[in-house]
Structure formats: structure tokens, C-alpha cells
Amino acid sequence: MKKFEQKSTALGIELGSTRIKAVLAGPDGSVLASGAHDWENHFEGGYWTYPLSEVWDGIQDAYHNLAEDYQKTCGEPLTTVGALGVSAMMHGYLPFDKEGNQLAAFRTWRNTTTGPAAEALTERFHFNIPQRWSVAHLYQAILNGEDHVKDIDFLTTLAGYVHWQLTGKKVLGIGDAAGMFPIDSATCDYDAAMMASFDELLAEAKLPCHLRDLLPQVLCAGQDAGTLTEAGAKLLDPTGTLQSGAPVCPPEGDAGTGMAATNTVAVRTGNVSAGTSIFAMVVLEKPLQNVYPEIDLVTTPDGAPVAMVHCNNCTSDLNAWVNLFGQVAALCGAKMPASQLFPLLFNASLEGAPDCGDVVPVNYYSGEGVTHFDAGHPLLLRTAGSDFSLANLMRANIYSAMATLKIGLDILQDEKVAVDRLLGHGGLFKTPGVAQRYLAAAAQAPVTVMETAGEGGPYGMALLAGYRLAVLEGCPLNLADYLQQKIFADAPGSTLEPREEDVRGFTAFLERYKAALEAERAAVEHF
């Protein structure tokens, strides 16, 4: 591996749903070192949440593992980086008072508790406000009469919170900000008319504040978002080895880092990120004609409008089945790590029937906005005559992980949204040629997966940090041209065209999946 000066490197840290991961990249985008920490959300007090103490435990562990990897690979301690950035799960609710005290438990994107607020704001703004958006959480807290609301001085996302602690700056990248409140791409700021409209709601609630004063300042990729303070460096690396002073790029959401990681920030490009949740991002060349509750309108990290199909449920049920099969293997004396078990089972799915032999899992661990569920229960349905084989069950579970996404993508197809290329990234695509093949069938479009697909969001965050460093050094390119010319010009990857038998099979499976959602509704109501 080529070795670079440490001050030319870029560090990206992303707090995902089940992993906190750090990636150090060289100026050419090559991965120099990485580290990770596993964590899980908790359901407490009626909300899916993560304690902030676990945020820092996880970040420090991931960074420690990265620093060890760098020392082992490069033969020297990591004392500085050229630039860094933090990304995390988008949306949610993290309110603080004037003294910086947390006022309520972190309410994540996974919560579906803001239905009345989301519906009222969507009608008021004539703009889709999903339940997971920060402004929906805020307005629902107001409607609930929650006592802490009167003390809110700052409301941010998880990435915005971590960035604040590292730099002292209350800012947010425009892509993450677009999951808090609607953005005007022409001004690269919160939509002024909608913000004035929300201020009227604050006045009606007798709250003496303006929304703009509560939200982070919006920044675009490449702009100045502060530097790593001494206290921030100690938060990342309690050993004191990491020096302060590195520039920090605007904090982003996992949607924005997914676009960067897959080189899909240009118009008519799209990507699918698949992990605990799954979402598709398509950069628009013209606005959608209608307002859809199933479609978010957000932005690229440099402010271009994006249609987003976000589904809360993707791999949780699939992971549970793989874990079960791992227990069976261990019982038979064949214990193996997940890194070996997943590829074995994914490749076994290729032997399954294209329509999965009448085996239909519904993978809902939580509510699902696209199909209008406020809660979920994992469910497995099959006919008495189904071909209930391991191959069909695995193929059905992978299909299920992307079935709800397909329902949302069909809306964009009806709107005649054009996509020149679609790229897949995230954990679902780690096994070559399996989920990629099935997504091509679902989307009925060629799907590309690059060799860095498994790195996902933290790699994208490292690239955004690298772009900030390049801008500081005088790079004249916009973000799309920088990624294309400096990072991905010769990036290795593979592209799969949809197979006719897979398209027919997935279409048949999806019809059964939609029918199975009626059983899912009954399960949610009665089980």
C-alpha cells in the first residue's frame, strides 16, 4: 500500500445504526486504515434511542482500532490528519438548553411517533414532512405539551452534535440539514417561507423563539466548518496522540455520504444504501410534479435537489435468520464467523427460484412510512405447497430487504425521473454479485458496485473531508467534478444488467409481498 504524508490524509467517521466506523483515506481516495465498533439502539420510554455516553465510547473505540490499523500498516503512530469529518444517521431529535444540557433522550429516525405533526406540517407547507424529520419531532413535542420544549436553545442531529463537541461549531452540512427542515436549493439554506410559517406555530404555542435560532447553520461541501479543538482531539483519542488543529468539513447525514461514496452527486445519478435501513437517492434534473408522503426531497452535500425513498427496515430480519443458521451450524460442530457465514448463505440464495417458491418474509421490525405502518413485527408467510428450501428462504429474505424500496421507486418511475446510473453500497452488497443482481431485477436497471462498496458512508465522509482539504489548497473543482476526476476516474467496480428471469421473479414476489402486508397489519394490531 502506498504511504502518504499524514497531513494529506482525510478521516471520515460515521455513526450508523449498528456500527460506528472510521476510515482514513489518502488524497487519491485509497483506504489506508479503518476501525469499527458495534452498537445497538435501545427501546426506552417509548422511543428508539442511543445514550450519548455510548456515542463517545463507540467513537473512541472505532478511532482506537483505526489508529492501531494505521500503526500496523504504516509503521508509525497516527498523530494528525489533513482533514476530518463526521456523519451519522439522519433526522431525529437531539434538543439542548443554553448550558448544553441534553433535554430529552435522542429520538432516532426509527421512531414513528410523530404522525399528527408530520401530517399537519405536510399540509401546511405543501411539502412532504416525514415522521422521522427533526421538525416533525419538534412539533410533535409541542403538540404533546412536553415540558422541555420551552428550554430548547439548540436542536440538531447526531452528526451535528458530535461535530459541535469536536469543534465548538453549531453547523450542519446541507444534506443532513435537509432531513431537519426543508431546504431551498437556490439559496442553499432553510426554506425561508416555510420557516416563517413554522414561526407562527411557535408563536401560537407561546414559545418566544424563532426556528432559525434553534437549528444549526447550513453549510455546503467544501465550506469552513471549523477545526478540531484540543478538547475535541481528546474526545476522539483519549491517549492524547492525535493533535488538534485539523480542518473539519461540514457534518453530513448517511444519505450524503452514500452519494459521495458512490460518486452519485451529479444530476441523473442515483445510489442505493442498504444496511439496517435502505434508501435510494436520485439527483433530480427537474422538480417532482406532486407531493408524495413516500418520497423525501433532500439535497446532495453541495445542495442539488434529491428525491429520496427511505425505508426503515432492511437487514435486521435477514441478519436474525443468518444468526439462527449460525446457531444451527455451531450445534453441528461447524461454528464460523459471520464474515464466512454471510457469503455462504448469500451465494446459496442464487440456487433459489426466481420468485422464491412462494416463501414471503415481511421484514418489518419497526414502522414503515412508505407502506404506512406505525409499527412492525417480522413475519414469515408461505403456502402449504411452497418450496421451503434454504435457497428460497435466503433469496426471499434478501428480496424482502429491498421490496419496500421498490414500492417507492415505482413512484419515481411514474414521475418519469431519469437515472443514468445506479450504484449500490453498504453491508448488503459485501457478497459480490448477489444483492447487486437482485437490486438490478427490482429496479429494472443496471446496478454498479465499486470495490469500496463495503466501506459505505464512512468512506464517503472521508472523501468529503478530502474535498474540504482540496478546497483549502486551492482546488477549483465543484464536488461532482472533484469526485469524478480525482477519486473515481479509474475506480474498479462491476456492473450487472437485470436478467429477464430475475425481473419476472421479483415482480411475482413483490405482488405476494404486497398481499402479505395485510397479514402484517393484522399482526401489528393483534399480536
From TrEMBL:
Pfam families: FGGY_C, FGGY_N. Residues 10-235 form the Carbohydrate kinase FGGY N-terminal domain. GO terms for biological process: carbohydrate metabolic process. It comes from the Bacteria. Transmembrane segments: none annotated. Keywords: Kinase, Transferase. GO terms for molecular function: kinase activity. Gene3D superfamilies: 3.30.420.40. Residues 271-467 form the Carbohydrate kinase FGGY C-terminal domain. Belongs to the FGGY kinase family. This is Carbohydrate kinase, FGGY family protein.
